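Q: Got a minute? One more chain.
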Amino acid sequence: MQQPEADLLVQAAVAELAVGRVARADALLQDAIRVDPRHPMALATQAEIAVSRKDHARAIALADSALAIEPNCAPAWSQRSQASWLAGRREDALEAARRAVDIQPPNPRFRLLLAQFAAWTGHGTEARQALAPLLAAEQHDRENYAAAVSMMGELAIAEGRFGEADPYLVRALQILPGLEATRMLRGMNQLRLGRFREGWTNYAAREQVAFLYPDGRPVLPGQVWRGEALAEKTLLVVDDQGHGDSIQFFRYLPLLRDLGAAHISWRTFPALARLLADAAPYATVLAALPDEARFDFHCTSTSLPSRFGAEPGNIPAAVPYLRPPARLKSAMKPAAGRGLKVGLAWSGDARHMRDHLRSIPAADFLMLADVRGISFHSLQHEIRPSDLPALEARPAIGREVEKAMDFADTAALIAKLDLVITVDTGIAHLAAALGRPVWIILHVAPDWRWLTGRPDSPWYPSVRLFRVTPEEWLGDAPPRVTAGAWGPVLGRVAAALRTLAAR
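A: Always. Here it is, folded:
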């Protein structure tokens, strides 16, 4: 019997996705749906593409369409799980991942996804159970065995057992050296542990991780700069991650200048362009790259610490290395208030894959604003609807930042504050680069740049770190996925704030 045309088109699309040709796969799937509008696998695979592009609303809609036709379509449940995670709906993501495994227990992709989501929501036992069949298949399924070993390393990181993670990651890479996501994960963990020399090398594998570049890596003019002499050469530096990363690594621009480059251009995000341009009049700061631009070399800003051999003891940490433009100093200022002026930032970009491990619900975070004798000011330029009631319940909190047009305006406001208390987001980097005292609240598995165990940072001398402990994260059952684990650390911050106010 001849195979239906829609089936053939979906199979061809899956093959194109496997080699990274997303646009071609999308076109084939559209053809399949024209042939058969009720083809569940065509819809589920379109949801996969939407997930890769971080379009969670479209992915959920496509997955739901597939499930309305075929409720036991395991790939649709898997894509719905990933899309729900992107949307910040962690429990929905877990439930959908469980459904996919229940429908197709042997499928390793579904088990690995469930294990990952369980790991990062504190369900360590469930993660281990999901991985058990894959770990038992060492002899006849080496590829998925290696992926499961890697996931055990990721689970150790998620639980704050950083030293225990490395042997798992090493073992996975011994079996399959091409696991670039595992190599990147190991690099981040080595950096977190202060093993910078090895860490930078492995972290560079990030540029080879396909899912981070669903539409392919951008093509930039010139050769990749790997430390060659820059005398009389032009260099383009490109910010390739988030606003905080851009601010953190902008400190290396003077070192590039001192290498004698004929000219340096730095392409950044529009919201940072005005601030960075004012701080570096000897360079060209761009929010977009002209089509005709030509350079001898290019590099990403996140590669600069590696190029300069960064170690915890030699990081350029002279602050401030950013300043608000002079013309803004009187335009953005906190409203008059008594006592200390303290800025508060409690959430970052909701699209971040670990947002629930860094953003704190305003209803919990704003307990800090109950400390007496302090004038508080919100540094949240965008406020989530779920956070608005808690903020509006404290009308004394200044909201001048909502008038800010970009980071330059926010910098002018922060410059007038005595202290900033924030989660791990761009505001933390901005305040620290401005040289303001900053208290950063970190979860049990913080980003690599904050290292482990220490209350300070080699990147920013004005930073003080407050950490959730593994016991606070994993000590209760069921796991406290959101606000519960933040209570003790917020209590410690409030106590320190009362002590500061009393002085």
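A: The two ends are 84 Å apart (CA to CA).
Q: Perfect, thanks.
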